[in-house]
UniProtKB/TrEMBL annotation, chain B:
Zn(2+) binds at residues 89, 91, 111, 114. It is found in: Mitochondrion inner membrane. GO terms for molecular function: metal ion binding. SUPFAM superfamilies: Rubredoxin-like. GO terms for cellular component: mitochondrial inner membrane; respiratory chain complex IV. The keyword Transmembrane helix does not apply. This is Cytochrome c oxidase subunit 5B, mitochondrial. The keyword Acetylation applies.
Length: 261, 127
């Protein structure tokens, strides 16, 4: 049998990039159909296809790396570069919304009353639930670091406990933000204040949910003995993403909740 | 009828299990704290690459290649799995024109452009 003389992974042909592209097509055209013809069928079909694609693609990566041993040190290095570049692109995504916020708030227009917060907007008290949320996310950053050290030191029980705690803190944040959204005295339709507030915090909340899901998958894998004390890049990637989510919140809190109030 | 078969299978299984020694719920690894090491669990190409590195070998060329003087006394050592291998010589740093030539087993050959020496050394295909 011919074996390769290099350490890289020549991936087998896979249908998931195609199904992912089809899902993107169905979701976007489905969005247009929803707008014009009041039917959500196409969009829902696209979403289901997207979820199936993500599940099967990432399941295959776990099979290739953990079960088949294709993730040699050079391959792992490439995955690290990939995750860092992806998170960097997400940083730029949020940068745009911060730009919008500062554009609107540094020079408030006469329509807003020439002031920030705009006339008629009752802002949320930054020292109530938002401060609690800050503490929750910072604590989750501590617990995820605890989980990482537990894995590196071979401590299975501690790794599972600290990772579970991190996920619970993530859920608590999402729950508290949900309550805040429900009880907020302003909506997304309330001028540029509402727009910048809910789009920025809304996308952040979505990223918290994505990060929590990533960590939950890591918890499942840790319970099933996928990670070794030296090789656990899936977990490291989840932890990086979680720290990124935490940092974005800190910027949101300081800019929108505190300075902007 | 399917229910009767299922019941028979369950009772048979229970009888079999009673004769087997009870296994501890937590899998014991070499590391008693419960998380395996690469040495215990790495598999496939990753395992082969890591085990080779531990023995000081690099069959998958993961490390930076060794540097040689390229003189007659110290030629560039080129590992090869066959009787010949392509060599690309950058005669000077930052050269954009690569000098390509086949290096055959036997005596060291010289680059047709800069004259540095190359010697093909047979090595096994990693498997």
């Amino acid at each position: 049998m011919t074996h390769q003389a290099h350490a890289y992974h020549m991936v087998d042909p896979s249908p998931w990039p195609l199904t992912g592209a089809v899902a993107a097509l169905l979701m976007t055209s489905g969005l247009a159909v929803w707008f014009h013809f009041h039917s959500t069928t196409l969009m829902a079909l696209g979403t289901v296809l997207l979820l199936l694609t993500m599940y099967q693609w990432w399941r295959d990566i776990i099979r290739e790396g953990t079960f088949q041993g294709h993730h040699t040190p050079p391959v792992q290095k490439g995955l690290r570069y990939g995750m860092i570049l992806f998170i960097t692109s997400e940083v730029f995504f949020f940068l745009g919304f911060f730009w919008a916020f500062y554009h609107a708030s540094l020079a408030p227009t006469p329509e807003l009353g020439g002031c920030w917060p705009p006339t008629g907007i009752t802002t949320l008290d930054p020292f109530e639930v938002p401060l609690l949320n800050t503490a929750v996310l910072l604590a989750s950053g501590v617990t995820v670091t605890w989980a990482h050290h537990s894995i590196m030191e071979g401590e299975r029980k501690q790794a599972i406990h600290s990772l579970t705690l991190t996920i619970l803190l993530g859920f608590y944040f999402t729950f508290l933000q949900g309550l805040e959204y429900y009880d907020a005295p302003f909506t997304i339709a309330d001028g540029v204040y509402g727009s910048t507030f809910f789009v920025a915090t809304g996308f952040h909340g979505l990223h918290v949910i994505i990060g929590s899901t990533f960590l939950a998958v890591c918890l499942l894998r840790q319970i099933r003995y996928h990670f070794t004390s030296e090789h656990h890049f899936g977990f490291e990637a989840a932890a990086w993403y979680w720290h990124f989510v935490d940092v974005v919140w800190l910027f949101l809190y300081i800019s929108i909740y505190w300075w902007g109030s | 009828m399917a229910g009767r078969h299922l019941l028979r299978a369950c009772t048979a299984l229970r009888l079999v299990n009673q004769n087997v020694a009870v296994r501890p719920l937590q899998r014991t690894m070499g590391t008693l704290k419960g998380i395996p090491t690469d040495d215990e669990q790495a598999t496939g190409l990753e395992r082969r690459a890591l085990q080779a590195l531990k023995k000081g070998k690099d069959p998958y060329s993961m490390l930076r290649p060794m540097e040689y003087a390229g003189t007659k006394a110290e030629p560039h050592i080129v590992p090869g799995i066959s009787t010949k291998r392509l060599v690309g010589c950058l005669c000077e740093e930052d050269n954009t024109a690569i000098v390509w030539f086949w290096l055959h087993e036997g005596d060291a050959q010289r680059c047709p452009s800069c004259g540095s020496h190359y010697k093909l050394v047979h090595s096994e295909l990693p498997h």
